[in-house]
Amino acid sequence: MGSGKMDKRYDVVVIGGGIAGVSSAIAASRQGARVLLLEKSMSFGGVLTTALVNPMMTFHSPVRQVIGGIGQEIVDRLIGMEGSFGHIDDPIGFVSSITPFDPEKLKSVLICMLKEAGVNYMFGALVTDVFSKNRFVREVEVSTQSCRFTIKGSVFVDSTGEGNLSIRAGAGYFKGDGDQTSCQPMTLVMRIRGVDREVITSYVKDHREDFVLSDTTDLSYLGIAGFFSFMPRLRKYAVSFKRDRLLFFEIPSHPGEVFMNTTRYPGDGSNVIELTEAQSKGNCDVWKFMEFLKNEIPGFSNAALVQTGCSIGVRETTHVVGDYVIKVDDLLKRKQFADSIAVGAYPVDLHMPGSEGLKTMKIPFPGEYYVPLRALFPTGIENVVLAGRALSAEHLAFSALRTSPLASATGMAAGICAAMSLGSGLKVREVPFGSVQREIVRMGGIFE
Ligand SMILES: Cc1cc2nc3c(=O)[nH]c(=O)nc-3n(C[C@H](O)[C@H](O)[C@H](O)COP(=O)(O)OP(=O)(O)OC[C@H]3O[C@@H](n4cnc5c(N)ncnc54)[C@H](O)[C@@H]3O)c2cc1C
Asked: To test ligand 1's pocket by mutation, which of 19, 42, 50, 53 has the most ligand atoms within 8 angstroms of CB?
């Protein structure tokens, strides 16, 4: 049990310790609530640590920083232990900044911050059932390796990524765009060492047309999307996925190492059969893919696979129906919300299951959109707040809203709202949004 002994009842119980859940738990605890954070895996950070997703993108719109608060505190801590360079220009030019980091250092940073905030937490704690009465979740069943027990809470934060707490409690939901085969594909990220950055840099400089590059990049940091003309050769290595480009990023403080985000497996990651199938294909494909890299791609002849994510990265599964379901037009038309609690700047970025490429849409200048607090309330449930990837959004809007800096911002807002409802004796959706906004600003966050 992190930070002390476990009780049977907490003010706020946060389910899921990804970047959203951690931000939420810290925020609620700083508001004075007694908080328990339950995480089924053995680290915090969610897909950022278990699936090796990297870099965080993006903390900035083209005109300013739009994510602050606990997300920025996490980055500052990482910089302090040489686990990140901080925010740097995106060499691909897709977003205004990227934030590469060392996931092992992120694991420690998140634990330190939770302990400092006085959050109680538990690893290996899978929430398997929910007991509700009169639209309130009263307690959750936790299954561990050795036993099962229940925990009572006054308010619950659902930061499970797929909203599985809310769905178990009876919230409405849909998958993908309503058809589960439309869910964005899964990716098994690979950590590769022995990559020769000099060879790659000089090849990219001489063949700019084969890459997506920002006009200003000097390639002092390697974030590469391209080698398009090489990809047809992937067929002869008999991998089971198709992809039109390589996508990889250098790892801070690990010269010659990159995270390769290129494999792709269609399927519904909330269905254990399809999840198992995707993970298995990934673990078999990576060796053939390494042969392709070593034989065909400049700079990879001495490369070796260090590790794959311990879980395949699941981009999209279920979407909970909230009091407000964010639509893509809200982003593209930059709709203003009186109850805004976060500003995002990541564009629409849809990895399509049936094709090798991406569908992207830019947000009109200044490239920012808003997230309403109502999108964090699952309809029909009175004491659950959604956070991070679990927020309520349609498929296309979700493809923009899903990334990690915004997950941290919505997590912080969820934690504040959960704690404030206790202090005021109000239901979560009755907490005045102005009070939540005031606390967001006090914690260094941005909502307008
Ligand atoms: C392949 C891939 C590439 C991506 N690329 C980028 C990128 O380059 N940059 C970027 O910023 N974002 C990227 N994203 C998106 C982004 O990383 C995630 O959407 C974001 O980090 C989600 O954070 P989260 O905390 O909401 O959810 P998650 O990270 O999914 O965390 C949810 C946590 O809840 C836990 N959990 C779930 N159910 C239970 C339960 N019942 N009981 C207990 N614990 C539970 C899980 O174990 C997990 O730790 C990518 C995602 C994927 C999959």
From this structure: 53
